[in-house]
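TASK: fixed-backbone design
INPUT:
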């Protein structure tokens, strides 16, 4: 049972999520490929997990290209989708709108893994943009003119572990199916 985890991570959040997922799936045959740096062909795998972060309201460009180029193959595989973003309250919307409908319908799991609005380790430009996203989250307290600091997002390990459990179950189910044939 070969599993591909194809993902797009620019600044490392998705990468950290994938590291945890791989840790939870220890003992299974997994290839994890960051599409920002490498190439993956889903047709060589029995199951595919696909994830990306959100930048400017869209999945990463390499993520969109991957989904477009491999859509017909992905539709034939057991597929799980996830994303990371900084605006937690937008995550439901992103999960619904950013993945093609055909793939959402085919996927056995679609999950939000959390995200980061930390400026640590970012390029100058990304730091500026994350600061501006963060300042848009401050809420004015109209009674006394104070501002309420936003609660910043983080990675959601429980969602990553949930996916790991599903993947193990799905792998068992597929193995049983193959043995019966
Ligand atoms: C330039 C820039 C644009 C971003 N745009 C969005 C956005 O439109 N919506 C959102 O929810 N988060 C946005 N984010 C936050 C990222 O989705 C978040 O930091 C995520 O954890 C990045 O994952 P990665 O490090 O794996 O690429 C943006 C971050 C940067 C640096």
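OUTPUT:
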């Amino acid at each position: 049972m070969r599993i591909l985890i194809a993902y797009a991570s620019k600044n490392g959040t998705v990468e950290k999520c994938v590291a945890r997922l791989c840790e939870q799936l220890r003992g299974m045959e997994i290839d994890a490929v960051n599409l920002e740096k490498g190439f993956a062909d889903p047709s060589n795998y029995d199951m595919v997990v696909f994830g990306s972060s959100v930048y400017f309201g869209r999945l990463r460009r390499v993520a969109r290209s991957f989904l477009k180029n491999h859509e017909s193959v992905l539709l034939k595989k057991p597929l799980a989708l996830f994303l990371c973003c900084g605006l937690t309250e937008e995550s439901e919307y992103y999960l619904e709108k950013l993945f093609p409908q055909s793939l959402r319908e085919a996927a056995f799991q679609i999950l939000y893994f959390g995200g980061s609005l930390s400026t640590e380790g970012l390029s100058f430009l990304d730091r500026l943009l994350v600061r501006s996203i963060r300042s848009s989250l401050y809420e004015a307290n109209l009674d006394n003119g104070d501002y309420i600091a936003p609660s910043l997002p983080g990675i959601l390990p429980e969602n990553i572990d949930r996916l790991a459990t599903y993947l193990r179950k799905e792998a068992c189910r597929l193995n049983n199916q193959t043995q019966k044939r």
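COMMENT: Residues 118-152 form one domain.
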